Amino acid sequence: MIPYASAAAAEAALGRSMTWAEAAWFRYSARTPDYLLYCHNIAILFVVYTVAPLPLALLELRAPPKLTSPYKLQPRVRLSPAAFLRCYKDTARVLLLTVGALQLVSYPAVKMVGIRTGLPLPSLGETAAQLLVYFLVEDYLGYWIHRLLHTGWGYDKIHHVHHEYAAPIGFAAPYAHWAEVIVLGFPAFAGPAIVPCHMTTFWLWFVIRHIEAIDTHSGFNFPFNPTKLIPFYGGSEYHDYHHYVGRRSQSNFASVFTFCDYIYGTDKGYRYHKASLAKLKDGNGASDAFDTSKQD
Question: What is the predominant subcellular site recorded for this chain (predicted)?
């Protein structure tokens, strides 16, 4: 809640006129308790999870296979509409019971680390720098947690649920055991805890991170995807290999970038697989990304 009775009072405190974004934020949040602003994350999460994977789901379900197969990483795998719906319903239920519950009780931690709701709003440069830090922190911590989840106990008790989709789809990005959803939430929160931000940046961080997860689980590798311009970005092909190999996978643990796997040597199976596919393509023109025997 912004502690000003009017826009004039807010501008007097700022010592300048509000920008259009600040004026909009003032109108929206001036009389809304900070706790309710924080709980917006629940609604934002469900809107993004429902809307973002939908175009690719419709493309896979409705478009002719001849149109989508060149871009589908595992073209021989075709899920039914019922399978898509089951994935959505099961994941939505887990998100509601885990992330929703955490949102309701974790507000004191948000206040303690210094997430703010007042004016001024952060600049674009500040927001971009903070988001970069959050991605780097989440990627590094998530890498090690993911590796632990591929140990015998971690996989058998928890992580096997996420790997039920050997050919992932966007709706399966957060499809996981409830314990995994909770555990992987900590790396996502670690960045804002280290570098506190404005609530709007906090919202934006979780929106972008969730869209990124949907992208890497999309099952499609489009040549015109703008994420290909991001340095060290793994992308859908990189993570799809991890799902394709499944339980035996000791490759491609990082959630966003590729450098942790490179530094710690956990991309060797993937690089070997890519080299094998390149030789196969040179030999007989094969082009399907994951239609050869599984490598590790």
Answer: endoplasmic reticulum
